[in-house]
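Q: A reviewer asked whether we had any structural model of the full assembly, not just the individual parts. We don't, so I'm hoping you can provide one. Inputs are below.
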Amino acid sequence: MAILDELMRLPGAMAAFEFRGSGELLEHRIAHPDRINPATLDLLAHMCSANMSIAAMQTRGWEQVTAMQGFYPVQEFTLVGFDWSVVVSALRRERCKQAGQSKLPPFTGIVLANESADYEAVFALLERSEPAA
Amino acid sequence: MSMIRRLLALDGVNVICHFRDDGSFVEGYGLMSHDDMVRLAHFAHDYRRMIQGNADQLAMFTGMRGWTPPRGWIIQGATQSVCGVGNLVCVVDPTGAPLNDILLELREVSHW
Amino acid sequence: MSIVTDLLARPGVVAAGEYAYRGDRFSYRGALSDEHARMASVMCRATTMGANMEGAMLDSIHPGNGLHPPRGWLVRGPVHTVCVMANVFCLLDHTQGSVNDIIGFMRQNLGDVPYGLI
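A: Here is a predicted structure for the entire assembly that you could use as a starting point for your response.
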């Protein structure tokens, strides 16, 4: 997948991956197999799937109760860990939903080393306009 | 005999553990190693707090009464289920197990 | 509250505050009502708790991964990003401000807060 290769070119990229809504790891790239392996990524993907669902619930509820806009739909969830961060994006899925498609593409994720993490660059790449299909 | 050990007499209950408010293991009985019981107690303590967070948010967004305080949780698997009430957690073989009775017993014992 | 005041002075920040890991205390500054700030603190508490638990589980299965312990998290929507680091939250209009700037500032000032209190 071209997007995974592009993500891996970002500063600090350690792994890039796609995963189903139910959490299963799909395509992935790993820069340092001695530090991250597919089993770790699969568990991480499941966690991120759960966190995206929670964030969707929270932003929906927040907008309904406060009438503030611009929180939902969730585009990315980011966990800033001790040394690494993981950013996962639902934007491709959201664009397909808005286009009325029922079959949705996977989530996209990237693991970054904090020291060189450029979150804005990650968001810009993940939010770049692309065909909904 | 420890008061919680009697819960093993319920059909389907294979493990019962008791933990403190900080998650530290107090005692456990049943078909599980001590180390795994300690892990189970820690998980149940964390999960209890997560469920409390879920219930708080649900109450907050819906404005409905009755979600909080949460009384417990169940994770139902194919051959194993885990039930948490208060500072107790048990592992259950769900096949034919009277979950209603188990939850009621857990609730009663959790108040002791 | 000085970090909250400093955050509020940064471009794009709509509101910022502190929340307690346990209990329901909170404080805030910015364009939120008391009730909405309380709600934000409830969500922050719950999500931080969840992220910490998840990190601990991941670490028990794959020790030494760089994700645990978690320092914070972000939820990004079309206009707003919620940034949380330790027990501080910040609502950012990211069309007016920079996530990198906010995260960098929060990490610099909160990066060493012990996570054991969660």
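A: Points you may want to mention in the reply: The CA atoms of residues 1 and 90 of chain B lie 18 Å apart. Chain B has a mean pLDDT of 91.
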